[in-house]
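Protein Record: Sequence and Backbone Structure Tokens
======================================================

Structure line: whole-number tokens from a learned vocabulary of local backbone shapes, matched to residues.

Purpose: to set a sequence beside its fold so the mapping can be learned.

___
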Amino acid sequence: MGFPARIAAARSQIRKKFRIAVQGTRWRLSWAPVLLALLGVLIVNPAKAQGNWVYESGGAVPSDAISGGMEPDGTPLYICRAFFQGGVHPGRVRPGLTGCNIGWGTLEYDVPFYQVLVPLWASAANGNIPPGAYSYGFEAGFFGPALYPCRGYLNGGLHPGKVRPGFIGCNIGWGGKEVPVNPYEVLIAGPYFHLPVDNWPLAAGSLPVQYGPVVGGFEADGQPLYVCLAGFNNGNHPGKFRPGLGGCNIGWGGAEQSVPTDQSSVMILNWMRPTQVSFLSFQAGNEANGDGLSICRANVNDGGLYPGKYSWSLNACSIGLNGAEVLSHDFLILTDNTQIPH
């Protein structure tokens, strides 16, 4: 079984789905009415972001979904988008909801068929780096070679590691050893319209679920593994982290190294205040009139932190909540504020 097929099989543990490709987008399609197929045609492919979206329905969330906020009780909320009234609108979803919740026209709507934001990974092998790969770390030395986050199947789990040209595979720290794995996948992320990401120091004491840590894989027992960066031996090395692991685990020098949290960070989504933003680099949807919509998040009076939608014309973060469209003027935007270089 090839690597993409194994990814699909792992994601189908909850319910079996077909996977289809529509204009470069990854989709999950369950047995559903013809309307479901039509929806896939109607959803617009916004600004090179389509590779970061997978199809779900009825409150389902894929295992690698990226959180964009949380309920007042701490339950993670995930970023979704849905076709509605001629547009594609970002919102929120979690298990227990019946769809993607959006705000529109002063009301809250629950759209049963939607897409969920996930990290994009590209297949590779034998030390090769696919186009668009995200350079996240480097080997020791002033001009040390760039390192890239990768992931590969090993002993029943899907483990994040590191790769660069010259490696024979994705090097993963596991069982006390550094294990090269083939084939593997390499993370595709920001900047330039790909998923905007940033770093969060693990020395802060806990995993910042509300900020959207990037899921890179899972243990054999299903525990999620997050993409981390470890300062080690005068370099910065991509690896894996989860609560209870003790640090960012990497492969180095033929052995597994557990780098303490005070020398490690975890990859999270990059959220910016409107005053910092002059260019919206990650378009996630559009209004019926074609105006672009980005992802925002805002605290609401009930104590929750909710993903929603933002545009220049709206000048607020629109969130569907308790039956109404709530407009918050104190919010953050998911963007790296970086333009494509000329």
